[in-house]
UniProtKB/TrEMBL annotation:
Family designation: Belongs to the PdxA family. PdxA2 subfamily.
Annotated NCBIfam families: pdxA
InterPro entries: PdxA_fam
Keyword Oxidoreductase included in the entry's annotation: yes
GO molecular function, one term: NAD binding
UniProt entry tagged with the keyword NAD: yes
Domain of life: Bacteria
SUPFAM superfamilies hit by this protein: Isocitrate/Isopropylmalate dehydrogenase-like
Protein name per the record: 4-hydroxythreonine-4-phosphate dehydrogenase
Cofactor(s) required, per the database record: a divalent metal cation
């Protein structure tokens, strides 16, 4: 039975971040192995260091060079050891080109494994964009790395927490550029991707809501013309293809409606328009204890030939190696990867 479970390749993230800690916390849970065969791609010496400092996270380490040597047994963390980090030079909680390069190489490795069919899905811990760029890898983030190394042109980011799901017309560009990218062909493509994603998640008849770009969705042209000229034509094209889509709906009202069950997914026009409501819903801070009670949510790249889900938070260098990092988002990301892996043969029409 275990051999039939999907193999999920999980990157360690930036070695100086909370990625190694939350990975250990997730791998400690025996129920993980009832759902999948998890594999960490990273550096064994970093994991050993974290266990040394935080002995409550102790696990047996199986350091391997080939996926076929993984044991997939509770109590053991299988690590595809990339040997990218000089542990004597690593400073937890600090930006460095060494750590940035390591995090990038972990991502490249899981992409390669998935493209070759060695693993069924990939899950990424956070990397630091500054560190990655210091190492000479000039990408805006994970999404763009996956696009390049899977040779994919039409892809988008989806964020999910509970019943709230959001896809983005654009992500890591300036707000000025984001406005310029609201064009009918792109909006149409994102609606199609959103429809397919929902079906792959088991939602047979998705209801899609499209956010406007301008306040009040331009109030019939009073505050802009992107709705009339670009967004509405895209919605009409999608409707003609049989997609259940509504909009454009004012950005300040569409998300409460989605949480209330009106929509299975929302098409946001730019990065922050989609990220803010998701993080407001999933991130909960305890001001008395000065710690995060919940850092929940999943980041999924749609439109790729392989499965990629991710934590919906950053590297949190300020929490590195303190034992206080919250692993909920990583758990959520793994669960979504498992669900998508089980449904990956489904083709939406």
């Amino acid at each position: 039975m275990t051999a039939q479970l999907p193999i999920i390749a999980i990157t360690m993230g930036d070695p100086a971040s909370i990625g190694p800690e939350i990975s250990l916390k997730v791998f400690q849970k025996a129920q993980l192995y009832e759902k999948c065969r998890p594999l960490l791609v990273g550096d064994s010496n970093v994991i050993k260091k974290v266990i040394e400092v935080l002995p409550a996270l102790s696990l047996k380490i199986n350091s391997i060079k080939d996926v076929k040597d993984a044991q997939f047994q509770p109590g053991t963390i299988d690590i595809l050891d990339m040997q990218m980090v000089d542990i004597d030079q690593l400073e937890f909680g600090k930006v460095s080109s060494m750590a940035g390069n390591a995090a990038f190489q972990y991502v490249k490795k899981v992409i390669d494994l998935a493209m070759k069919g060695v693993v069924d899905a990939t899950v990424t811990n956070a990397l630091n964009k500054e560190a990655m760029n210091l190492a000479g890898h000039h990408f805006a983030g994970h999404t763009e790395i996956y696009g390049k190394y899977t040779n994919t042109q039409n892809y988008t980011m989806m964020l999910a927490h509970g019943n709230l799901r959001v896809v983005h017309n654009s992500t890591h560009v300036s707000l000025r550029q984001a406005c310029d990218l609201v064009k009918t062909p792109r909006v149409t493509e994102v609606i199609r991707i959103a429809n397919t994603a929902c079906k792959q998640l088991g939602i047979s008849h998705p209801q899609i809501g499209v956010a406007g770009l301008n306040p009040h969705s331009s109030e019939n042209g009073l505050f802009g013309d992107e709705e009339a000229n670009e967004i509405i034509p895209a919605i009409e094209i999608a409707k003609s293809e049989g997609i259940n889509v509504s909009g454009p709906i004012p950005p300040d009202t569409i998300f409460p409606k989605a949480i209330g069950g009106w929509f299975d997914i929302v098409v946001a026009m730019y990065h922050d328009q989609g990220h803010i409501p998701l993080k407001l819903k999933g991130f909960q801070y305890d001001p008395q204890k000065h710690t995060w009670k919940s850092v929940a949510g999943v980041n999924i790249t749609l439109g790729l030939p392989i499965i990629r889900t991710s934590v919906d938070h950053g590297t949190a260098f300020d929490q590195a190696l303190k034992g206080t990092a919250n692993e909920i988002s990583l758990e959520n990301a793994i669960d979504y990867a498992i669900k998508l892996a089980k449904n990956k043969e489904m083709v939406a029409q």
